[in-house]
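Input chain follows. Return C-alpha cells only.
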Amino acid sequence: MEELRREGIEVIDLSLGALKGVSELEFLNPGSLILLASEKRGRRELRVYKPRITKGAMETWLEIFSNVKGYYMDIDTFLKVGNSLGVLPDAVIVIECEAENTEGFELSGWGRECLELMKNKTRQMINNTGYTVQEMDIE
C-alpha cells in the first residue's frame, strides 16, 4: 500500500483486531471510508460492495463476545462492531479479494494480480470515475 501513500492517498492499517481497529477508526472519525480486505468466501474474484449490516447491536455483541471475535480480525466482524458502536461513516465501500492459502508469506500469482486490481479500483473510486457499488448483507 506504500504505492497508494506515495500518491497522496491516506492508508491506515486497521488489522489490529476488530475492537482495536474500530477504536482507531473512532479516533480518526473519517467522513468516508474505503476498506481493502482479503476474505475467503469461495469465489476467486474482486468484490466491491457497500456493506449492509443485518443484525442489531445487541445480537452483534452477543455473537462477538460468545465467539471471542472482538480480538480476531475479519472484515465482517470489523463492520459489525463498527456499525454497532456507530463508528462507521455513511459512505463505506469494501474492496475485497478472495484469499488463497499458500505456503509461507508470499503472495500467490492471483494474490499479486488481485492486489493490483484493488489498488486500481481504489484510485478509480477516489477519482470518482465510472464505478457502481452493490450492497451486500453482512450477517
